[in-house]
Design goal:
Length: 163
């Protein structure tokens, strides 16, 4: 199976308003959506600061900068949900509601024909389908997850800004 053949959960971060924390949200029957949204946000929106104040301020060493591109990873079992990292982020890209002390990993609704989060999302912010490797506006996070959102890219000093 090639990367092109994989079916991925696609979350539209602009359409998702985090209603999964409230009654009737898309993840009422699925505890893993918080970790999915956290992964998507860190992969696409995180500014990958040269000096990562979020990592430095964590008293429990729960955040780590990955070597492959500088993406931040949170170690769930070290995190106590103090939200100091969210407060320290100069860009506001770490959301306190994504930092639960106890987190469940998404299992992709293994063995189910219907993906619970997709079927119950009130904002049509999720879909489950094939993703083309260079599909416009969709960024592949891993073999199971893709994100629709404006991906932040670091601009080199003196480079022209395009919109």
């Amino acid at each position: 199976m090639t990367d092109k053949d994989l079916i991925r959960l696609i979350i539209d971060l602009d359409a998702c308003d985090s209603c999964y924390d409230s009654e009737g949200g898309c993840a009422v029957d699925c505890g893993g959506l918080t970790s999915v949204r956290e992964s998507a946000t860190f992969a696409v929106i995180c500014r990958r600061c040269e000096y990562a104040s979020c990592v430095e301020v964590c008293p429990f060493n729960a955040l780590e900068r990955m070597e492959d591109g500088g993406v931040i990873k949170r170690h769930n079992l070290r995190c106590v949900s103090c939200t100091l990292c969210a407060q320290a982020c100069p860009f506001g890209t770490i959301y306190a509601e994504m930092l639960p002390f106890y987190s469940v990993q998404c299992d992709g609704c293994a063995g189910r024909d219907v993906k619970v989060c997709v079927a119950t999302c009130r904002h049509s912010a999720m879909e489950y389908r094939h993703v083309e490797p260079h599909e416009e506006g969709v960024h592949i996070v891993d073999q199971y997850l893709a994100v629709k959102a404006g991906k932040w890219l670091k601009r080199e000093p003196g480079a022209e800004v395009t919109t």
